[in-house]
Structure formats: C-alpha cells, structure tokens
Design brief:
about 45% helix, alpha+beta, three-stranded antiparallel sheet, 6 helices
Length: about 170
C-alpha cells in the first residue's frame, strides 16, 4: 500500500529530524520537505514525468542542454501547484506570458496534466479574493498588463481545452 509506505517514510524522517533538532516533515508523492528553524529544505525523491522529450534546447551561447519552456511550465504546474499546492504570482504570470509568447509550450504543459487536475486548479483560482496576491511576486514584468488580475486571467487558461490555447476565442482584453 502506497499510503502505508508513505507513513513509514514520514515516521523515519521525523525520527531523524527529531534527532538533529527541531523541524517538521512532509512527505508527498515524489518529494519530501523538512521545515527547519533556519528555513525549509525540499528534495524531489523521484522525478515525476512531465514531458517525455529529449533535451532539444541549449543554454544561450553554449552547448549545455537545457529544459524546454514547455518542460519548465509543466514542472511548475505538476510539482509546485499540484504536488505542493502552492500558487504564486510569478507562476501565474509565467503561464500568461507563455500564452502570449509561446502558446505551443503552454499547450504542451497544460496537456501534461488531466482535465480533472486543470479543473481543480481553476476551482482553486476561482476561490481567491479579488486583488489576491501570493508567493513569489512578479518583478519588472515584460508585460505589465498581464500582472493585473492574475488569478482571473490564469483561471481562464485552466478552464480551456489546451488545444484552444493561443486562439483568440475567450481571450480577455
């Protein structure tokens, strides 16, 4: 049983953390986080498959392989939002910027999760109060208009069929 195994891992980690000082332990699918007095530490215990592409991009001016924009967006979506339950201004802005600048990467990232997961995210965004702001802020946005009404605008993306991303249908002004 996976949940029983997760409980065993949590208990073992709590014991180890308790031996070294105070702290809290969270164990979820594919990651664990330990909260120490000095700050949190997180470790991905297994990679959650996002996209199956080989590295096709390189870091600017080098031959160093780099994750694609679609992979980065998919990891934000799968790891931070779905696995950790954290929604940040910066991530929502990145999804909206990708719709404007790289809709194909956004389509691929949104298609990396189920319709049910996208609906759950949209529902969560719907519950946020007007003017909500959370997590990492957007600093010096390339498109300041996208930084206004982030939750409302991003909710529309998660309510959309990924195949419709990039079309003018349903686009907010």
């Amino acid at each position: 049983n996976i949940l029983a195994r997760r409980d065993e891992v949590t208990t073992a980690l709590e014991y180890l953390v308790g031996e070294t000082g105070e702290g809290t332990v969270e164990v979820e699918r594919g990651w664990f986080r330990v909260g120490f007095r000095e700050g949190p530490a997180a470790l991905m215990t297994i990679p959650r498959p996002t996209l199956t592409d080989d590295y096709t991009e390189t870091a600017a001016g080098t031959d160093v392989p780099a994750e694609s924009s679609a992979e980065i967006l998919a990891r934000k979506l799968q790891s931070r939002i779905l696995d950790l339950g954290e929604i940040t201004d910066r991530d929502l802005y990145d999804f909206l910027a990708a719709e404007r600048r790289d809709p194909e990467s956004l389509r691929r990232a949104l298609a990396s999760v189920t319709a049910r997961e996208r609906t759950a995210i949209a529902s969560e965004l719907r519950t946020l109060p007007a003017g909500w702001s959370g997590g990492e802020p957007v600093r010096e946005p390339a498109w300041p208009d996208l930084a206004r009404g982030l939750a409302r605008r991003a909710r529309r993306l998660f309510e959309s069929d990924p195949n419709d991303i990039g079309s003018t249908a349903g686009r907010l002004p």
